[in-house]
């Protein structure tokens, strides 16, 4: 058996069933690893050791009595610290909310607890999920486990870093312009931004109401899928599909890609903006692998990346200003510089700008839906550059917009980023797959086929 | 903000003061300028919709996709 800290949730669960591992054994091993190594990574803001061990003992007792609740029963999961867990502070990695104790669980936390998951604690993020890797906040920034001098991506920085470091098999992040997919790619794991509204935002501190998503991150596609089985909200799903199909997101994982029609959105990274050569080569390899597996690959054209990003930006900045205006007026000194600069943008936009952007959004969403009339899944670049050093502020700022993720926050399509190579500097590269609204299963099918055909998800950093 | 008529630094600060950001203007003038310029850049890259009947998001009638 692999070392416990590199096991996937599926492998852990299978070992519980075979009585080869127990929840107490797994939780203890991971807490020990966090204690030994997280001083280098800073992925956790708070490790809830006592509660995690209590949950592990309870899970162990239930499983031993044959009361198995499902694939997440006894599985350690860590949570981005903008999601409420009753009794714990939801700090959003900000001085402003450092004493903000949650009085109830977020909906997703209730769902995970019902599934028997063991909640290990709260993870670092960019301030209010919008700042950057900063050294003027209340907690140190998370670092990349592949090279701790480097940025782990963000804003779910701790969620990516904790997975890459082998501290937990599953984390939860939030994504308003790529904040799940960026750290997933940077830390060599996988992350899903589900279809808009498929996972509840109730109990998540808002960044931008209409472009924000909550989703799972993991070291395997199967673990992403089985987490979705617990956290997807049945009431927002496509009801017809829900009632006529066998629902589990893991069902189609091994069906392969033969016969699937995959569109390759080259213009994002080849002409709208020019990606790094290593990124371009990696994306071409991904397309080649899927073609060899039997998918048809054709170039497709979406609206321009810059236009989609600007529309998403106006919506995002406007909604963010509405949330933060009181604090920005009264206590701007309590924000990190990175967050303050970004959060004030919406102050300079008008109601007319916002409505115009929402009209553009509808046109662009229809345009992407039109492409999905002929294609099952799209391939696009996620990050256009390998991740930079954590102290390279100017490079970080330049690269911030060099990505293909935020368009799908605006259109609401599900999008998944996963590792697709290793650059010359030894850091992960990534690809993004995008699916039809509420068709996460096909997205998982493509991602799982790519995962099976390549060695990347078996690679782990030395810490 | 009007994208065809770039805003001056003075106007940025006047606008910021008028919407209650006096403290930020005093303590962090560069951050205020940076925020205003980023907002202006987004507006200047955004298509302008002239059709007043163009439906915005979210959709105004029920459909099977978003």
Short description:
The complex is a heterodimer of chains A (463) and B (66). Helices cover 40% and strands 13% of the residues of chain A.
Protein model, in words:
The complex is a heterodimer of chains A (463) and B (66). Chain A is α/β, with parallel strands linked by helices and 463 residues long. Chain A is 40% helix and 13% strand. Chain A has 16 helices and eleven strands. Chain A has helices at residues 9-17, 23-41, 49-64, 107-114, 157-164, 181-186, 221-231, 239-244, 267-272, 277-292, 305-330, 337-343, 351-371, 393-399, 407-411, 440-453; strands spanning 44-47, 76-80, 118-123, 170-175, 190-193, 213-218, 261-264, 296-299, 377-381, 415-422, 428-435. Chain A is globular. The model of chain A has no long low-confidence stretch (mean pLDDT 95). Chain B has 66 residues and is mainly alpha-helical. The model of chain B has no long low-confidence stretch (mean pLDDT 87). The interface between A and B is large, with 50 and 38 residues.
List the helices and strands and how they pair.
The complex is a heterodimer of chains A (463) and B (66).
Chain A: H1 9-17, H2 23-41, E1 44-47, H3 49-64, E2 76-80, H4 107-114, E3 118-123, H5 157-164, E4 170-175, H6 181-186, E5 190-193, E6 213-218, H7 221-231, H8 239-244, E7 261-264, H9 267-272, H10 277-292, E8 296-299, H11 305-330, H12 337-343, H13 351-371, E9 377-381, H14 393-399, H15 407-411, E10 415-422, E11 428-435, H16 440-453
Helix pairs in contact in A: 2-3, 7-16, 11-13
Chain B: H1 9-18, H2 22-27, H3 29-45
Helix pairs in contact in B: 1-3
């Amino acid at each position: 058996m692999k070392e416990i800290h590199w096991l996937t949730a599926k492998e852990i669960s299978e070992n519980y069933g075979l009585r080869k591992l127990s929840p107490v054994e797994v939780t203890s091993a991971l807490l020990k690893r966090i204690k030994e190594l997280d001083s280098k990574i800073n992925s956790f803001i708070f490790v809830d050791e006592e509660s995690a061990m209590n949950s592990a003992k309870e899970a162990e007792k239930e499983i031993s009595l044959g009361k198995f609740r499902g694939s997440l029963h006894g599985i350690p999961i860590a949570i981005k610290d903008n999601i409420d867990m009753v009794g714990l502070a939801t700090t959003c990695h900000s001085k402003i909310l450092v004493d903000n104790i949650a009085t109830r669980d977020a909906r997703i936390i209730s769902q995970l607890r019902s599934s028997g998951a063991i909640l290990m604690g709260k993870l670092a993020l960019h301030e209010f999920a919008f700042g950057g890797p900063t050294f003027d906040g209340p907690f140190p920034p998370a670092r990349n486990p592949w090279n701790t001098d480097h940025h782990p991506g963000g804003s779910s920085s701790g969620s990516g870093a904790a997975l890459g470091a082998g501290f937990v098999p599953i984390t939860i992040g939030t994504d308003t312009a790529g904040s799940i997919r960026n750290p997933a790619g940077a830390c060599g794991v996988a992350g899903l931004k589900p279809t808009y509204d498929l996972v509840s935002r109730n109990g998540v501190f808002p960044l931008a109401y209409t472009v924000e998503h909550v989703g799972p991150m993991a070291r395997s596609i199967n673990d992403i899928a089985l987490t979705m089985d617990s956290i997807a909200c049945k009431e927002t799903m496509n009801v017809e599909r829900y009632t006529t199909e066998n629902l589990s997101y893991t069902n189609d994982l091994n069906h392969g890609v033969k016969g699937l029609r995959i569109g390759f959105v080259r213009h994002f990274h080849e002409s709208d903006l020019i990606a790094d050569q290593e990124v371009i080569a990696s994306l071409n390899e991904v397309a080649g692998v899927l073609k060899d597996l039997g998918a048809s690959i054709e170039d497709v054209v979406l609206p321009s990346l810059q236009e989609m990003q600007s529309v998403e930006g106006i919506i995002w900045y406007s909604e963010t200003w509405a949330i933060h205006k009181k604090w920005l007026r009264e206590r701007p000194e309590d924000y990190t510089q990175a967050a303050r600069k970004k959060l004030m943008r919406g102050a300079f936009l008008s109601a007319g700008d916002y409505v115009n952007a929402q009209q553009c959004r509808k046109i662009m969403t229809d345009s992407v839906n039109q492409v999905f009339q002929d294609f099952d899944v799209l391939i696009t670049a996620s990050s256009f550059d390998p991740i930079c050093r954590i102290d390279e502020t100017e490079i970080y700022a330049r690269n911030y917009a060099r990505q293909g993720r935020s368009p799908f926050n605006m259109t609401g399509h599900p999008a998944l980023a996963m590792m697709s190579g290793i650059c010359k500097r030894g850091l992960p590269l990534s690809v993004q797959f995008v699916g039809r609204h509420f068709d996460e299963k096909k997205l998982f099918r493509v991602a799982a086929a790519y995962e099976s055909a390549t060695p990347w998800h078996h690679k782990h950093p030395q810490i | 903000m009007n994208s065809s008529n770039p805003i001056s630094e003075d106007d940025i600060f006047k606008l910021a003061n008028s919407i209650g950001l006096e403290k930020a203007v005093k303590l962090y003038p560069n951050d205020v300028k940076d925020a205003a310029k980023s907002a202006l850049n987004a507006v200047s890259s955004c298509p302008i919709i002239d059709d007043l009947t163009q439906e915005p998001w979210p959709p105004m009638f029920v459909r099977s996709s978003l």
